[in-house]
Amino acid sequence: MALLHHLNKTKSLSSVLLPLTSTHTHSRRLSSDSTKTLTIETSVPFKSHIVEPPSRSVDTTPAELMTYFRDMALMRRMEIASDSLYKAKLIRGFCHLYDGQEAVAVGMEAAITKKDNIITAYRDHCIYLARGGSLLSAFAELMGRQDGCSRGKGGSMHFYKKDSGFYGGHGIVGAQVPLGVGLAFAQKYNKEDCVSFALYGDGAANQGQLFEALNMAALWDLPAILVCENNHYGMGTAEWRAAKSPSYYKRGDYVPGLKVDGMDVLAVKQACKFAKEYVLKNGPIILEMDTYRYHGHSMSDPGSTYRTRDEISGIRQERDPIERVRKLLLAHDIAGEKELKDIEKEIRKEVDEAIAKAKESPMPDTSELFTNIYVKGYGVESFGADRKVLRTTLP
Ligand SMILES: Cc1ncc(C[n+]2csc(CCOP(=O)(O)OP(=O)(O)O)c2C)c(N)n1
Ligand SMILES: [Mg+2]
User: For the Dehydrogenase E1 component domain, which residue ranges apply (predicted)?
Assistant: First the structure.
């Protein structure tokens, strides 16, 4: 019981998606000392810009490591399944996958609460899951169904979960950063002791609006954490072709920054914890997460024309975020190979069941075409059987 309680406290996605039961074999080995503190060094030291970096030694527990393993493996499976659903034409339109980058979503979530905000771009499925979204509502949204988190009207790029501080899901490169700074402004204005994370890519990092928003955040000491997920490519363009300085953690000039191994979930957690404390006292910070996407930019990009297969397989072998945690679990004798494989099997089943349920969800009603577009009471409404009669109400 104590273990189950602890695992729930460590915010496993499994507590949302699959009740922890005695069939979870890993609980047997964990039960003795699942909450004892383990101190683990980050893969590489943090690099910093005008700020003293946090310690490389990260405190964790066996239970927490198991949770990270499970959560990242679940995200990976969801993305691989989405790839298949896309190829089967059950997901249409844009679809950008996050496999490879899972440690950023999981490590960030481990350091914050649901009162803190996150806003991101279009590579949003796994952040949604980390914020407590269910697999069913994720797959239903991907397939444009009523049970989706945006009622099937947003699709892959527009996942939201406002009740746990997730503000989407945005398709215009960089545009979420000023919105994220606005969220931080609201938090400060309302005297909430919380912070906002605005995620953007290395491609977006060269945009003007980012610097304008950062200026305001610094000027007004807003609790804004700008997280550059540097996966080293913006569509098919390598960072060195697009950025004069690819040291994104230094690009805030007068705003401090940290460079973090974004493939190391413990490093991400440590950096986000540090950043949260820092911005509540001092105003904004930039976290550059050094990460990698295994898939192409989107489902229409095979991802192999502008980078070599050796590069991709090299990262998988050397830096994969799930394999890193698997090795830690084995090295500290927290779980055995078979237990971890069994967890992965359970996850497969869980994902398949969610997909089957999502397929049963109906498509949105045509009347939904005219909802969630304008603020209620304003805008254009249509009437009549053929909806050709329009009435405009302006503020
Ligand atoms: C304002 C704007 N310009 C261009 C695009 C087309 N576009 C979509 S994604 C993308 C690349 C962004 O790369 P990055 O910021 O590194 O994010 P990643 O896809 O690597 O996560 C571009 C140019 C867009 N959606 N919006
Ligand atoms: Mg990128």
Answer: 70-365
Question: What per-residue confidence (pLDDT) applies to 27?
Answer: 47
pLDDT band at 383 (very low <50, low <70, confident <90, very high): confident
Average pLDDT on 266-279 reads: 98
Enclosing domain of residue 328 = 35-336+345-360
CA of residue 238 to ligand 2 center, whole Å:
8
Q: Are residues 389 and 243 in the same domain?
A: no
Predicted confidence (pLDDT) at residue 6 exceeds the cutoff of 50: no
Q: What does the H/E/C string look like for the chain?
A: CHHHHHHHHCCCCHHHHCCCCCCCCHHHHHCCCCCCCEEEECCCCCEEECCCCCCCEEEECHHHHHHHHHHHHHHHHHHHHHHHHHHCCCCCCCCCCCCCCHHHHHHHHHHCCCCCEEECCCCCHHHHHHCCCCHHHHHHHHCCCCCCCCCCCCCCCCCCEHHHCECCCCCCCCCHHHHHHHHHHHHHHCCCCCCEEEEEECCHHHCHHHHHHHHHHHHCCCCEEEEEEECCEECCEEHHHHCCCCCHHHCCCCCCEEEEECCCHHHHHHHHHHHHHHHHHHCCEEEEEECCCCCCCCCCCCCCCCCCHHHHHHHHHHHCHHHHHHHHHHHCCCCCHHHHHHHHHHHHHHHHHHHHHHHHCCCCCHHHHHCCCCCCCCEEEEECCCCCEEEEECC
Does 201 contact ligand 1 (Cβ within 6 A)? Answer: yes
352 plus 251 within the same structural domain: yes
Residue identifier of the C-alpha nearest atom 11 of ligand 1: 234
